[in-house]
Design a protein that fits this description.
Chorismate_C, 9-stranded antiparallel β-sheet, binds the ligand C=C(O[C@@H]1C=C(C(=O)O)C=C[C@H]1O)C(=O)O, isomerase, isochorismate synthase activity, isochorismate synthase, disordered N terminus, alpha+beta, IsoChor_synthase
């Protein structure tokens, strides 16, 4: 089916129609279910009618074709890699929409963990310094440098249990089954794009500070972040790139001048909620392809930043820094950045965290920022050793 016929298809989920049924994870099937939450909504799937693995630019057409062959109301959901080279999108047999996911108290796992930073902290510090040299040399304005933590438990990781503990740790809690019995899971605070009819919303984040358990220190950190010239510059680069990418699709685009402060349980972020009205009903995946990778996860200019991070990080990001979400046959959908996330299999997890490097960044500070970002998952795992 051609994408132009998208709007004639039945919507799978007008947001207002999400039933208020209390969600539970009992329907979650490790290895096959996709879970994706947004404020007030939980998407949980069972079974697999189709699997779409394609580069991001091809996905709008590939998804439209797959959903044209599926029963009315079907959707495609899953993840797309950072480099946009491939996807793991599932057309499920069964979809349940329910209300906000409740905080669940689960049995604390008595697992013992070994934790290995990849690369070492020293290597990360050197990479940040090299990025700063590129910025001083004038070839880059910003690059996001990530690192990983490899965790090994003395018992198999219970994905359902971990998901229950990630509730409330980010705007989008998610789990996507991947090949080879791997699961991508996390609690992302960052909305890349949502589309409902012609209405679009994006909420980029850039500029971060770790939360403190002391209320006074916590408030001071938030105020410092809001005043920080370096962080506001880092944030502005993202907002400008997103506004430029969305403008051609919109009759109206509202870009607030001032960022707001967004708290997660572990971090403060500078956030801007951008809303717009589309000229045509362009599919959410086309908008995602136009936006990704934003300077929030890659850098500015994009191509130079992409080359720099590939050379400096040494690791293949895989699905980290990519997209997770869903789209229906009308093109409505919601896509979050796959950050504050991990890939898990058996006894192991690889956690990811990155930080935006701009002029004025301090390597030790950026290292500490990535450590703080790891806490989203580490606290969910009950790991305090690294924190
Ligand atoms: C790269 C990550 O986060 C991104 C980088 C941020 C920053 O540098 O301030 C803030 C939020 C995200 O856009 C991550 O969490 O791994």
């Amino acid at each position: 089916m051609a994408p132009s016929t998208l709007s004639t298809r039945r919507r799978s989920t007008p947001p207002a129609a999400a039933p208020a049924a209390a969600p539970t994870l009992t329907g979650y099937r490790p290895g096959t279910s996709v879970l994706f939450t947004a404020p007030g909504q939980t998407l949980l799937t069972q079974g697999r009618r189709d699997l779409i693995t394609a580069p991001l630019p091809d996905l709008p057409d590939r998804v439209a074709a797959a959903l044209a062959d599926a029963p009315a109301g079907s959707l495609a959901t899953g993840a797309i890699t950072f480099d946009g080279a491939t996807s793991h999108l599932i057309v499920p047999e069964h979809v349940t929409w329910s209300g906000p996911f409740p905080s669940v108290r689960t049995r604390r796992s008595p697992a013992a963990w070994t934790i290995t930073p990849v690369p070492t902290a020293e290597h990360y510090l050197t990479s940040v310094q090299r990025a700063l040299d590129l910025i001083t040399g004038g070839s880059l304005d910003k690059v996001v440098l990530a690192r990983a933590l490899d965790l090994h438990a003395d018992q198999p990781i219970d994905v359902r249990d971990l998901l229950a503990r990630l509730t409330g740790r980010g705007r989008h809690v998610f789990a996507v089954p991947l090949p080879d019995q791997r699961t991508l899971l996390g609690a992302s605070p960052e909305l890349l794009i949502s589309r409902h009819g012609r209405q679009i919303t994006t909420m980029p984040l850039a500029g971060s500070a770790a939360r403190s358990t002391d209320p006074l220190t916590d408030r001071q950190r938030a105020q410092q972040l809001q005043r920080s010239v370096k962080d506001r510059h880092e944030h502005r680069l993202v907002i400008d790139a997103i506004a430029d990418a969305l403008q051609p699709y919109c009759t109206h685009l509202h870009v607030p001048y001032e960022p707001t402060l967004l708290p997660t349980p572990t971090m403060w972020h500078l956030a801007t909620t951008i809303t717009g009205r589309l000229r045509d009903e362009v599919p959410s995946l086309t908008l995602a392809a136009a936006l990704h990778p934003t300077p929030a996860i890659c850098g500015t200019p994009t191509a130079t930043a992409r080359t720099a991070l590939t050379e400096l990080e040494l690791l293949d990001r895989g699905f980290y820094g990519g997209l997770v979400g869903w789209t229906d046959a009308t093109g409505d959908g919601e896509w979050a950045l796959t950050i504050r996330c991990a890939e898990t299999r058996g006894h192991t997890l690889r956690l990811w965290a990155g930080a935006g490097i701009v002029t004025g960044s301090d390597p030790e500070h950026e290292l500490a920022e990535t450590s703080a970002k790891f806490r989203t998952l580490l606290q969910g795992l009950g790991v305090t050793a690294f924190v």
